[in-house]
Specification:
Shape: rod-shaped
Distance between the termini: 125 Å
Helix content: over 70%
Largest sheet: none
Number of helices: 1
Order of helices and strands: H
Radius of gyration: 38 Å
């Protein structure tokens, strides 16, 4: 090989190394960007789930309270009916 061919080959190899390095760095940025986006999406979904869980707990508490009130009212009605039947 002549000196010119060697110099040309060295330039081509350096160019290919540079292109490979740029592609590698771009790939790393893409992976990091995707992970970052996934983390943001997960954070939003976790906030939504937290709100849903909070609403469910509130609804459960309200339901339990309502059931207790209804049970008390039914017990009072039963005792009044029992008193009416006894006094008959």
């Amino acid at each position: 090989m002549t000196e010119t061919n060697r110099a040309t080959l060295a330039v081509v190899v350096q160019f290919l190394q540079l292109a490979t390095l740029i592609i590698g760095v771009a790939g790393i940025f893409l992976v990091v960007g995707r992970r970052d986006q996934q983390l943001q999406t997960n954070a939003v979904e976790i906030d939504d789930l937290r709100d849903i869980a909070s609403d469910l707990v509130k609804a459960s508490i309200e339901s339990t309270t309502t059931n207790r009130d209804q049970d008390r009212a039914l017990d009072e009605l039963r005792s009044r009916i029992a008193n009416l039947e006894i006094n008959r």
